[in-house]
Amino acid sequence: MARQISKLILKKSSSYLKISIGLFILSLVLISTASVFFINQYLQVDKDFIRNDNTHMIEITSKREGNTQIQFLTFQDEDKVKEAISKHLPNVKFQLYKLYQLSFGVQDENGNTYFIYGLDEGAARLLGNCHLEVNTTCARKTIKQRSVLKIPVIDVQEGGFSSQQNVDFPVANQGGVFERNPFTLYEGDEVISDTGILYVGSHTFEKMIEIAFHVRWDEFVKKYDQDNPFGIQVLKNMYIYVDKITDVEAAARLLNDLGYNTRYTFKAFDNFTGSMKNTAILASLLALVILLITATHVILSFNSYLKVQQRDMGILKQYGYSNESVQEIYSYNINHIFFKVIAVIISYTILVGLLLVPLHSIGYLIFLVIFLLLILLLINRVIVHIILKKYTSKGIIELLKMNKEFE
Questions:
Q1: What residues does each domain of the chain span?
Q2: Which residues contact 115 (CB under 8 A, 6 or more apart)?
Q3: Cα torsion angle, 207, 102, 262, 246, sign
């Protein structure tokens, strides 16, 4: 009986209430669409920037002496950079890697020429799928499993250097260097695609230097930093990997203040991280304002609808219906309306989400669905347990006293 009465009353719903519910659904659709799109964009930014190792890396190419003179990096710069960051940016977590180079080509037993780059072993994960083990090379593609490099023994002269003999250096070969890794990010395409480039770990590179210049590594480093009598640039670049992308700007500014020339992904952007934060905050606030306005409008619409229904509530009470029974009759209608709204919004959100959000990130979509569901349930509880209860708790005489504007 109560259900039948509820359906009869529901048919008397004003067009104003129906329009309000329609606008509410439209606003929820817009919020849902915007939220799913924002999740999609966030995941893309997370992939392209936040989780991209290249954006965490600062490349140090050289240092400035005075205003114009550019100098090569020295091994002493490693300690200087580490101490400066640790002192001035104590909360910034970072790792420093060195990239070495042989300034001359090295042939193998078949006469193929390769250019050798050395890299600290800790940077192997950034270079590619290789481990930079001792006496092991890593290239974009595996040439063959083993080969013998002919390391030239260098004679340093005033006019340069020359070589009359080679020393065999057996190595194992690996493939797997990433096409776009932090150590070739700013190089030309011809360098990135060059199959004649081999990477070795720092320990292997040190052994090659000792053979080429017939000097111990520690002695080589000492002389290189003093006056570099070898006439070559061995320490090509240094790289600072900053754990948090939001700390990259601060670390780069500090290095620039210390006189180092740097390159990093966000250098071309003006406060990229700050802009991202401001955009996210602005979008969230805008969605919140729209949600508050439409939710308030729906609550007020139901309040107006229930105010008009006071006379019917009074009549029901005259026929012996209790406060609880009247509450049940009207709450059934309200819950029925909200059930339809929930079904439409949740179905729409899931459909759009599955189209735009990858399956491995489905957790974000589930969170959005739960959030929208909680918002709808909250609005429903406000209408049923506060507004509706306020009217059903009134006495019969008070309910039947209708203002002329509602007659």
A1: 2-49+275-406, 53-267
A2: 101, 102, 105, 106, 194, 196, 197, 198
A3: negative
For residues 248 and 135, what is the distance between their CA atoms, to the nearest angstrom?
34
CA distance 41 to 112: 47
226 by Cβ neighbours in 10 Å (0-12 / 13-18 / 19+) ranks as: exposed
Q: Please list the helix, strand and coil fractions of the chain in percent, rounded to the nearest 5, in that order.
A: 60, 20, 25
Q: Is the pTM of this model over 0.85?
A: no
Structure confidence by residue, pLDDT tens digits, 132-180: 999 999 998 876 889 999 999 988 776 567 778 999 999 999 988 988 8
What percentage of residues in the chain have a pLDDT greater than 70?
88
Model confidence pLDDT, tens digit, residues 334-348: 888 899 889 999 999
Start-end of H helices in 195-322: 202-213, 217-226, 248-257, 272-308, 310-318
CA-closest candidate to residue 248, choices 227, 228, 268: 268
